[in-house]
Amino acid sequence: xxxxxxxxxxxxxYGNTIYLGERECSIQxxxxxxxxxxxxxxxxxxxxxxxxxxxxxxxxxAGYRNAGTVEFIFDQDGNYYFxxxxxxxxxxxxxxxxxxxIDIVKEQIRIASGMKIEYSQEAIAPQGSAIECxxxxxxxxxxxxxxxxxxxxxxxxxxxxxxxxxxxxxxxEVPVYYxxxxxxxxxxxxxxxxxxxxxxxxxxxxx
Length: 207
Prior knowledge:
eight-stranded antiparallel β-sheet, 4 helices
């Protein structure tokens, strides 16, 4: 029963590399993530700091410059193993933005423009709990296979600390190309239980 846990990093052109906490990405289907959250409920603060330092060391060893994600597989004994590094902004980056208050897209543009990272590692203090649910166009009666068709009605969830990222609209035709991901719903709350309740309410509202 492995866990998929990843660490968000930022690295500039001046030797500064920091980590922005971790994301739990273990709930997947067909090797595609369904739900992501930060922080991971499976690790404690010492392990959190350890994998953060490991991710930074890996990025520095590679001479990496950009926003990026270092991904690990955890076993049931808490041992972890390098999986891969994604040298880009990932779909699940909003949960890190909500817990840290850092606009990762903005920081990525700043780094590409030759500017220094504005934050020190000591200044990074994630707060609360954030969860992201990926919204897929799938058919649950056909083993959740991708489902084409027209979106005839669309109602986004609303409320404090509910964020929706999508590109679809009423009348949009879901195509055969790419993958069935059409939107993301992200919530933040002071505690994980509150974040779960907020996400349940948001998904119930989402049409």
